[in-house]
TrEMBL record:
Residues 170-219 form the BD-FAE-like domain. It comes from the Bacteria. This is Acetyl esterase/lipase. Gene3D superfamilies: alpha/beta hydrolase. The keyword Disulfide bond does not apply. GO terms for molecular function: hydrolase activity. The lineage of its organism: Bacteria, Pseudomonadati, Pseudomonadota, Alphaproteobacteria, Micropepsales. Keywords: Hydrolase, Signal. Residues 1-19 form the signal peptide.
Length: 316
């Protein structure tokens, strides 16, 4: 059974990678992938999960849609974005960008989200988790993606992990990186003026899948609250200590807009707090891109939700 589920998640990753091509901002930006130098990341903290086993291709970056992406990440890092002194609420969020576990949308679904959270007084951390290996050259990478796209529509839709074995078989390195990120933040909570009981996680697409996996089988990670932004809506077995969940999805999302809302039903059946925003338009991968669709307002709604749960004010 684990083998079957693992194969399903591998197809899911391929489908999610296809979604990267669909994540086009409203502004006229080039959809061509252009290699760029690995940017300086002076505040990035290397996590203790070590290099990706068996990796032969090293990390590289490219630009697309006026944003930047990382590929072939072999060593995980966590980059803090701290609020101004005196504005910090004590709450923190670990941000998991998406990209089908083959790339990471570091700017649109990572840095820009973290900066916006820090401006609201929430300490944010961008998780650059390890990825599955892809061809080193950008042209070869593009060809491999094109070949994969040809069969994506014939496979199953992405689903959520259903057990710890499922997670470990399919997302072993990534779940280890998420656990290490939570451990690091908690170990330095006093230094960063963070309440260790108010550390949440928000993820986008594949990062939403990692957020759900961390919630279901992350052992000691235990997010205090989670955000699932255009992630799988498949039902899950909700743990007894499941946290409040915020979900943002566009009805015209080609991956998840027409497959039902089992995840929401699961949370409600378990009598756990859930807020669900289904935007009429937005597609997949809208993130922080400025678009003319109401999906652009997801972040403001998410901030209101954080405020409702007391995450924008110091704990009394």
């Amino acid at each position: 059974m684990t083998h079957i589920i693992s194969n399903t998640l591998r197809m899911a990753a391929a489908t999610l990678a296809f979604a990267c091509v669909l994540a086009v901002p409203s502004l006229a930006q080039s959809d061509k992938m252009e290699p760029i130098a690995v940017p300086a990341q002076p505040n990035a903290i290397t996590l203790n999960t070590g290099p990706l086993p068996g990796a032969t291709v090293q990390e590289s970056w490219h630009s697309q849609y006026g944003s930047v992406f990382a590929r072939n990440v072999t060593v995980a890092t966590l980059t803090p974005f701290l609020p101004d002194a005196g504005k910090a609420s004590g709450a923190a969020v670990i941000v998991a960008p998406g990209g089908g576990f083959m790339t990471l949308s570091m700017q649109n679904e990572g840095w820009d989200v973290a900066k916006a959270l820090a401006a609201k007084g929430v300490t944010a951390f961008v998780l650059k988790y390890r990825l599955r290996q892809t061809p080193a050259g950008i042209d070869d990478f593009g060809k491999s993606m094109a070949a994969m796209f040809a069969s994506v529509g014939k496979g199953p839709r992405p689903s959520n992990p259903t057990s710890a074995d499922d997670v470990n078989a399919s997302l072993g390195p990534q779940i280890a990186d998420a656990r290490a990120a939570f451990a690091l933040v908690r170990s330095r909570a006093a230094e960063w003026h963070i309440d260790p009981d108010r550390i949440g996680m928000v993820g986008f697409s594949a990062g939403a899948g990692l957020t759900m996996a961390t919630t279901l089988a992350g052992q000691d990670a235990k997010p205090a609250f989670i955000g699932i932004i255009y992630g799988s809506m498949a039902p899950v077995a909700v743990p007894a200590d499941a946290p409040p969940m915020f979900v943002g999805l566009a009805a015209d999302d080609p991956l998840f807009g027409n497959g039902g809302y089992g995840l929401i039903d699961s949370w409600r059946a378990a009598k756990k707090p859930v807020e669900f925003h289904l935007f009429e338009q937005g597609g997949h991968g809208f993130g922080m891109y400025p678009k003319k669709t109401t999906s652009t307002g997801w972040f403001e709604e998410y901030v209101r939700w954080l405020d409702m749960h007391g995450m924008l004010s110091p704990k009394k």
